[in-house]
## 1
Amino acid sequence: MAENSGSSGVFDTKKRGSVKSKAEYRRVRKYYKSADRWRVERERRQRVLEMFEEGVSYAVIAERLGVSERTVRRDMAKIRPYYERKVRSCLRKLEEKKRAKVEAELAGKSLSEQYKLLTRMLIASRKLVKQREYRRSKLTVTIDLDAAFAGYSAIKVEPKPPFSIKYPFNISFELTGKGTRILVGGLTISSE
């Protein structure tokens, strides 16, 4: 039976001694970074981005970090698409009505600032939607006497509005002070 050593990718080094040295350059070697090296590169890229957003040139960034200018350019080439993808995905998630308003707010800001602002907006909108989904049948109003005497805001409402009401709706009033909680009274509202 004849063996085919054509495109299999495995080289027979036992039968022909010179095949290995001639074909060694064709082997694809995989390179995996260690966790420490990956962490160092990630920290460097974050510092490159911070300095770039401050308006520092590539040459000065390279000098400060002790790397070549080409390394700084390569880092920026890897950072920029990452933040651009993040910004685009956040924009897609926003409602169409708000997009023009949000894009006006984002104008003139750096990519990382745009990403942070958009994530804050998305988190706030998700919390608001989640609160509106719940129908509440109970509201608790707490007055903190210690905070009132100290000159701080003393009224706390749980759960925080907005929410829809489910009848019968109960409102209870509590006073707190010096570690004690006293139920003052309550009110029940029916739908009729």
## 2
Amino acid sequence: MSILERIAQELEIGEDEEVAKLTQNALNNGIPAREILDNGLLKGMDVVGIKFKSHEMFLPEVLMAARAMQAGMDLLKPLLASDGGTGRGKVVLGTVEGDLHDIGKNLVGIMLKGAGYEVIDLGSDVPPEKFVETAKRENSSIIGMSALLTTTMPAMKRVIAILKEQELSGKIRTVIGGAPVSQAYADEIGADAYSYDGANAVVCVYKLLG
């Protein structure tokens, strides 16, 4: 098993000290920080997301994995920043207007912070205009929206419509998620990505930011 496979495996089981040690070993062996992130930490988080979705893992284990990812990222952040920090950035996050549910959204925020992103959490019941205004003001390339009620899902469509009206589509990308949300709905309203949980949100944002 390669050292990157071991990082992914230890992250999956939430061994933060072991992830930090292996990450340092990988750096000492000359493996680029970007490769450690892509093929070690993010690969582990991807597995966590899949297992969480299929109920093979539960929230406490996911939070342990997030802590392990943070331990690895603490070592990689300075190096990722020195090479231009490709893939890092700001994410504007919130639960859409009319919806007060925030547990899933909060978990996404924890995961993204663990992966080294700056998260601007607008909370719940966020009007469509506020998502766009905040992303513009903060120079954020990603808006993440959550909904738990089918009645509030159209607010996501409104955010995407505002971005189109202001010719910001492609400059500011959208990620949507929540219990009633699906890939089909994301395709229907023109969202850039659909995330089924917090761990998967990290992968979605990373891919969108390249």
